[in-house]
Amino acid sequence: MDTEAEAAYNALLTKRPDFADARKRLAVIYIRDKEPDRAIKALEGIDKIYKDVDFYRITAEAYIQKEDYASAEKVLVGALAENDKDIKLRLDLAVMYDEQKQRDKAVATIKEGLTHYPDNESFLNFLGYMYAEMGTNLKEGEKLIRKALEKKPEEAAYLDSLGWILYKQGKYKEALTYQKRAAKKAPDEEEIVSHLKAIMKKLGIKKSVDEIIKEN
């Protein structure tokens, strides 16, 4: 399907080289095909007036795929300067910082987002999880994650965050309750399963992950 779509978009761009949406969709195809240079080339043809949030997010993703994190950061930071209240842009930047182990920057990015959206569950969970990973502000982080869960009580990522921050506080039995719920909802998520295994080890549980997940 991507091959057919690529041909269709290229045919369209032959007639309308200024068609921004076609260029963005073509870039997404190239990113899926692990061809970030072609994605960036396709995006270069977009006039500044049509460079919206999607354009910047796709461009940054292409640079990240190239492992050119400096360029990705420049794109996202510049985009946020013009769209400082955009949630997705801010999350993209924070996730990139986290993946690069620049957690202080990730925390600062999300904290700034919370000044605009103090009740945004994605920001609340992200910051709480960062605290869990950093081993700091664990009580505050737990409160943030619980607040996120009030909005989406069945969200696997949030259940995982709560389980993990409880684990970091040595509350292993309570952590297991939430981690099991997370694993039941997302049994194929490696990080969630890894967290569950760590909690089981602390509790001396000899059962398999599958056995634990099947329990009530």
What does this structure look like?
The chain has 216 residues and is an all-alpha fold. The protein has helices at 2-15, 20-32, 36-43, 53-65, 69-82, 87-99, 103-116, 121-134, 138-151, 156-168, 172-185, 190-203, 209-214. α4 (53-65) packs antiparallel against α5 and α5 (69-82) runs antiparallel to α6 (87-99). The longest helix has 14 residues, at 2-15. It is elongated and about 65 Å long. The model has no long low-confidence stretch (mean pLDDT 95).
Distance between the first and last residues' Cα:
42 Å
For the biggest sheet, the summary is: none
**Number of DSSP strands?**
0
Share of residues in helices: over 70%
Computed CA radius of gyration, to the nearest angstrom: 21 Å
The computed structural class is mainly alpha
Question: Stretches where pLDDT falls below 50 for ≥5 residues?
Answer: none
Residue-averaged pLDDT: 95
Described by the principal axes of the CA atoms, the overall outline is elongated
**Count of helical stretches:** 13
Strand content: under 5%
Reading the helices and strands in chain order gives HHHHHHHHHHHHH
Q: Which key terms come to mind for this protein?
A:
mainly alpha; 216 residues; elongated
What's this entry about, in short?
By secondary structure, the chain is an all-alpha fold. It contains 13 helices and no strands.
